[in-house]
Amino acid sequence: MNGDLRTPPQRSYANEVAWSKREKTVARTAFEAALDRELRDVMRQAKDRADSLQQSSDLWELERYLSESRREIDRKYDYRYSQLIHVLGTLLSQGRLQEAELQGLAEDKLQRIRSLAEWLAKSTA
Amino acid sequence: MNGDLRTPPQRSYANEVAWSKREKTVARTAFEAALDRELRDVMRQAKDRADSLQQSSDLWELERYLSESRREIDRKYDYRYSQLIHVLGTLLSQGRLQEAELQGLAEDKLQRIRSLAEWLAKSTA
Questions:
Q1: Closest residue of B to A42, CA-based?
Q2: Residue A123 confidence (pLDDT)
Q3: Fewer CB within 10 Å, N or C, chain A?
Q4: How many Cα atoms are found within 13 Å in the side-chain-facing hemisphere of B97?
Q5: How far is A3 from chain B (nearest CA, A)?
Q6: What is the rounded CA–CA span in Å between residue A36 and residue A42?
Q7: Of B39, B46, B53, Cβ closest to residue A62
Q8: Chain B positions with Cβ closer than 8 Å to A
């Protein structure tokens, strides 16, 4: 028997969380602020390291630092709603954002983010 | 019949050139001086670019510049006697070394280096 081709089955994701319009704005603002701060930190570090370049090994260390920073930033700042709890939890655990910046998210999301942040902070301590 | 195992056949290379002890010293000194100058140039450039970092794209451009510089330097500074004519010819064509620094090499080597340098300068002009 043929299935109904007009209504394909909805895939359901374990991580699926609904984000209200307001929550999306809060999350996006916090995300962008953390990214901006992290980029500024990398710029400041790059300037400091470049200032004190003495020999070729310092140069290639600066290169390695920048490559690793780029890879880490690419990996970490993944703005997909299915990943956003993980992203915000990670940023919170690293002190890249403050809990106050997440005010406006529903309590269940805040709890999941906080709980992940605590877990990550403990496991990397 | 067995070949004589104690004296394996000598392989002969098209690029094989004999370098006297004195020539090795001249070549090594010129090579190291060019490498040192090139590294200093990259360091100066890196400092300048780091000084004027404004946004993330500048940061990743600095990273790309350093990666490419490292790859180019690794590729170019190949101190094998079988490659040395090519290496010195390339450095001469790029103004990375002056002909005066090669004084002490036999005239046939100088001619090959000069001829390659002119060819490369023409073909990248």
A1: B59
A2: 87
A3: N
A4: 26
A5: 50
A6: 10
A7: B46
A8: 39, 42-43, 46-47, 49-51, 53, 55-56, 59-60, 62-63, 66-67, 69-70
Residues A18-53 have pLDDT tens digits of 999 999 999 999 999 999 999 999 999 999 999 999
The ranges of chain A with pLDDT < 50 are 1-3
- The pTM assigned to this predicted structure is 0.80
Residue ranges of the alpha helices (H) in chain B? 21-51, 56-76, 84-93, 107-123
Sequence-distant (6+) residues with CB within 8 A of B29 are B101
Whether this model's ipTM surpasses 0.85 comes out as no
The answer to whether A56 contacts B39, with C-beta atoms less than 8 Å apart, is: yes
For residue B59, give the nearest of A46, A49, A59 by CB distance: A46
**If you search the block for the tokens 């020999």, which residue do you land on?**
A55
Query: What size, in residues, is chain B?
Result: 125
- E strand or H helix that includes residue B5: none
Span B30-43, pLDDT tens digits: 999 999 999 999 99
- What is the predicted pLDDT for the residue at A124? 78
- Please tell me which residue of chain B has the smallest CA distance to A53: B43
